[in-house]
């Protein structure tokens, strides 16, 4: 099967002027995203996530190495046509409405007429900007609404691959959860999603596989379920076990040479607690 995205020895150096030398932003990156996968590009600020994405998009030329999209060389028309892109901190002309923004993207990719108008309505509904919201100017949108409008724009040509550079940056937890759900919906429709994010709790919810970059180099790579499963540990959740029986259980465990490394009442994830604490209408 042709990979949705593949890079080989991808490298990018930025020249900073002759006396300040060079910045190595991405080094020898080998990466393969399979069709239908949700793939997370993780790493601290400045680790090369955006630079790698821009090379895959053909917006930046690699210093060496190569990137392919569905088998086409990155940057060619054929490759670009496969991708919808939501940049990091997107700038949108704020005098446009959400609908007009999507129309603008649609026209850029050669669409028009009744089919474009139908697509605009579909997308506004998909990103929950249907009705009045889609016709308001972007100036009046919240950060979450803006990101969703941008996402709708990226989806206009029904691309097979979505590349989202920090789609939830600056978005509140309810808004982030909506974007997360959208990513899952896209996956269900068979789309490939390559995204970067610092919100690891969310990454945990959506990503099939991740790469962790550090100073341009790949530090870790793998399926999340494999990376996060601690194979040498075993966890049993119990309800209604009295204190005395717990003592007995601990003794039983120790007798077998095992060690209790964690114990206690199960913990809720912060995201769930936070959202539960808000009044119902704020959660939407
Ligand atoms: N146009 C550029 N000119 C010079 N250096 C650059 C340029 N773009 C990126 N860099 C440098 O390349 C490195 C990687 O940057 P990049 O933006 O890819 O990181 P990132 O992982 O996306 O970070 P963040 O999480 O902050 O978005 C950084 O050291 C950055 O300063
Ligand atoms: Mg970035």
Assign a percent range to the helix content. Answer: 25-40%
Detail the poorly predicted runs. none
Largest sheet: 6 strands, mixed
Ligand kinds? adenosine-5'-triphosphate, magnesium ion
Radius of gyration: 23 Å
The number of distinct β-strands equals 10
How much of the residues is beta strand, in percent?
A: 15-25%
**Helices and strands: which structural class?**
alpha/beta
User: What sort of overall outline do the alpha carbons produce when their principal axes are compared?
Assistant: globular
Total helices: the number is 10
**Multimerization state:** single chain
End-to-end separation: 40 Å
Round the mean pLDDT to the nearest integer and report it: 93
Strand order of the largest sheet: 6-7-8-3-9-10
Order of helices and strands: EEEHEEHEHHHEHEHEEHHH
Task: Give an overview in words.
With 284 residues, the protein is of the alpha/beta class. Among the domains are: 88-159, no CATH class; 243-283, no CATH class. Helices cover 35% and strands 22% of the residues. The protein contains 10 helices and 10 strands. The protein has helices at residues 49-57, 77-80, 98-108, 113-126, 143-155, 173-188, 200-206, 224-228, 243-255, 270-277, and strands spanning 5-15, 22-33, 38-42, 64-69, 72-73, 83-86, 161-165, 192-196, 209-214, 217-223. A 6-stranded mixed β-sheet has the order 6-7-8-3-9-10, with helices on both faces. A hairpin with a 2-residue loop joins strand 9 (209-214) and strand 10. It is globular. The mean pLDDT is 93. Bound molecules: adenosine-5'-triphosphate and magnesium ion. The site of adenosine-5'-triphosphate has 12 residues, from strand 2 and helix 1.
């Amino acid at each position: 099967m042709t990979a949705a995205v593949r890079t080989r020895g991808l490298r990018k150096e930025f020249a900073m002027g002759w006396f300040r030398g060079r910045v190595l932003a991405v080094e020898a990156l080998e990466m393969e995203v399979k069709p239908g996968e949700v793939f997370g590009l993780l790493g601290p600020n400045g680790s090369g996530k955006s630079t790698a994405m821009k090379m895959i998009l053909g917006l930046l030329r690699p210093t060496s190495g190569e990137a392919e999209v569905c088998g086409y060389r990155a940057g060619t028309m054929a490759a670009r046509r496969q991708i919808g892109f939501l940049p990091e901190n997107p700038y949108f002309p704020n005098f446009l409405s959400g609908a007009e923004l999507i129309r603008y993207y649609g026209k850029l990719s050669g669409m028009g007429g009744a089919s474009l108008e139908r697509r605009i309505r579909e997308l506004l509904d998909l990103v929950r900007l249907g009705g009045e919201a889609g016709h308001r100017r972007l100036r009046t949108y919240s950060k979450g609404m803006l990101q969703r409008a941008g996402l709708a724009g990226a989806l206009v040509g029904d691309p097979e691959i979505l590349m989202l550079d920090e789609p939830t940056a600056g978005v509140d937890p309810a808004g982030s959860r909506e974007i997360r759900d959208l990513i899952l919906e896209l996956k269900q429709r068979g789309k490939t999603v390559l995204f970067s994010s610092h919100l690891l709790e969310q990454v945990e919810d959506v990503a099939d596989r991740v790469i962790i970059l550090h100073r341009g180099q790949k530090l870790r790579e793998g399926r999340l379920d494999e990376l996060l499963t601690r194979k040498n540990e075993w966890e049993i959740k119990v309800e209604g076990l009295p204190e005395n029986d717990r003592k007995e259980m601990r003794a039983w465990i120790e007798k077998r040479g095992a060690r209790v490394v964690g114990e206690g009442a199960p913990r809720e994830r912060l995201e769930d607690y936070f959202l539960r604490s808000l009044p119902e209408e704020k959660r939407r």
